[in-house]
Write a structure and sequence with these properties.
Length: 516
């Protein structure tokens, strides 16, 4: 095992652009994501939002946390829930809206109480689209394929995007506003290949046929919308689906992945804060890369290498035990994993330009709420670190030599060998005078020394480090100590083109440099 950790960043080497849509997010009518998350149903001891009156019902702290995260795209209202969602229940005056059973998530024999609360639809279409505008996120709506119709989906496009001369455009003007919302992204079904999904399709041919009926009626209302079809890890499904739909009717093939996924074995109630789980998670990011490559092969096999179709990884996240979908909390280990996967997305955004963390609030959530305040989990901090402090040009070929470790199988993560202890990505701004270098030290106990060499970039003496770290990888922010873990900013003096850095054990370290 080498004891030396050497990284060379050559700023003149090849670059590729990073699509900002890899920093996207997702909300669903599931657990406490919307009910008592995005929307405060029960009384809380914190102020409600006083800005746009359309968002009266949101908490101010939730609104600010979401806005500060700056998700590029926000997907709603499911997930599995989208295949039972009737959007017309969620428009008009608040007191006229229908309360409905959450039939995707309320089987009391199978699911814990609180998984699928009744939905009062107070946070409906106009509230969601207003929120997106207020936080400058692009909305992405998943239509109801499972229990809905192509007409219902087309009406939804008309409500959002068409003029007031149309039936639903006029309704929008009556309820909310004249100008169309111009929603660009529309998904047709969610995980429809799965027995758990309402509208389950065993055969991709059948899904493709019905998908086309949806797509054609929706594009009749607005020919400019981008359409998303459900893909997964089955190549036969992906290729047959895409061949049957054809290049003209699809823009993105969607895929999902959660790690370590223990709930299939119904194991335990608590997060397994164990070194074995830690090492497996730290070794698992390349599996995301493999999944993207494999899906990309399916796309080009079906449609040719000049296809315009790309991958949308529209659900990814950490899911330990089933009840995490109600509310959960996440520790530093989960934040490190988030950073490792985001580094992969940065490398692959040409094939996969969109990735949506699943989910935003409470349910598998980056943000956790309680009646007195918020917990911004290390996942939130990692997502924020990337959005605020990395640039949009990736320096492709870094030379990284570092120590390695082996990890054992855990949940759905297989064992791995020779996993590098350090992952590193370097990004640069368009003028090429600002450099941001992200390091993740995956070592459970040891600080690691890195010899960093910069080629073709002479940095000014003063730089900045932003660090995500804590004493233990199993540390959490909690109600008692909300800011135990935060992003720490430190000045670095004497930056040079050859410098030595000490990366604390289990940490993310981001070095920001300006050109001299
Ligand atoms: O995010 C929770 C659920 O996970 C989504 O509803 C579904 O798409 C996935 O299986």
């Amino acid at each position: 095992m080498s004891r030396e950790n050497n990284i060379v960043v050559d700023v003149e080497s090849k670059k590729k652009s990073i699509n900002p849509m890899i920093y996207s997010n997702f909300i669903e009518h599931l657990g406490e994501c919307i009910h008592n998350g995005i929307w405060a149903y029960d009384p809380v001891n914190v102020p409600l939002f006083k800005g746009n009156p359309k968002l009266k019902g949101m908490r101010e702290d939730v609104f600010n946390a979401v806005k500060n995260l700056k998700p590029t795209v926000l997907r709603a209202f499911g997930g599995c829930y989208s295949d039972v969602y009737h959007w017309k229940d969620a428009i008009g005056s608040r007191d006229s809206r229908k309360t409905v059973k959450n039939i995707a998530w309320n089987d009391p024999n199978l699911l814990p109480e609180g998984t699928g609360p009744d939905i009062e639809n107070q946070f409906g279409i106009d509230e969601f689209l207003t929120l997106c505008e207020e936080i400058s996120a692009k909305p992405y709506l998943n239509v109801n394929y499972g229990t809905g119709t192509p007409e219902e989906a087309a009406d939804w496009v008309e409500y959002c995007n068409c003029s007031t001369n149309t039936k639903y455009g006029a309704l929008r003007a009556k309820y909310r506003r004249k100008e169309p919302y111009n929603v660009q992204f529309w998904g047709i079904a969610n995980e429809i290949y799965g027995f758990w999904e309402r509208g389950y399709e065993k055969k991709p041919e059948n899904y493709a046929k019905k998908y086309l009926e949806f797509a054609k009626q929706m594009r009749e209302k607005d020919p400019t919308i981008k359409l998303f079809a459900c893909g997964w890890e089955n190549s036969k499904w992906n290729q047959t689906l895409l061949k049957n739909i054809g290049e003209d009717w699809v823009d993105y093939l969607t895929i999902h992945r959660y790690f370590p996924n223990l709930f299939a074995k119904a194991s335990g109630e608590k997060h397994p804060d164990k070194p074995k789980c830690y090492h497996a998670l730290m070794a698992s990011a390349p599996l995301i890369e493999q999944y993207i490559n494999h899906t990309w092969e399916d796309i080009i096999t079906a449609l040719g290498k000049n296809t315009h179709v790309r991958i949308a990884f529209d659900e990814w996240g950490v899911w330990y035990v089933f009840k995490d979908v109600i509310k959960s909390n996440y520790n530093l280990q989960d934040g490190l994993w988030t950073a490792l996967v985001l580094m992969n997305f940065q490398k692959m955004s040409d094939k996969c330009p969109m990735a949506n963390w699943s989910q935003l609030v409470n349910c598998l959530g980056a943000i956790q709420t309680d009646p007195d305040g918020l917990i911004l989990t290390p996942i939130y901090l990692a997502l924020k670190l990337f959005k605020d402090h990395t640039y949009y040009n990736l320096i492709e070929d870094l030379d990284i030599k570092c120590e390695t470790f082996d990890s054992r199988r855990y949940g759905r993560i297989p064992k791995s060998e020779n996993v590098p202890y350090i992952d590193c990505n370097a990004t640069i701004n368009d003028k090429e005078d600002k450099l941001s270098i992200m390091f993740v030290n995956k070592h459970f106990t040891n600080n690691l020394i890195v010899n960093l060499e910069l080629k073709s970039f002479n940095p000014s003496e003063q730089g900045e480090i932003i660090e995500l770290n804590s004493e233990s990888p199993f540390d959490y922010n909690t109600i008692e100590n909300r800011n135990k873990i935060k992003l720490k900013h430190k000045k670095v003096e004497e930056c040079k083109s050859k410098m030595t850095l000490e990366l604390p054990a289990h940490s993310v370290v981001l070095l920001k440099l300006n050109k001299k």
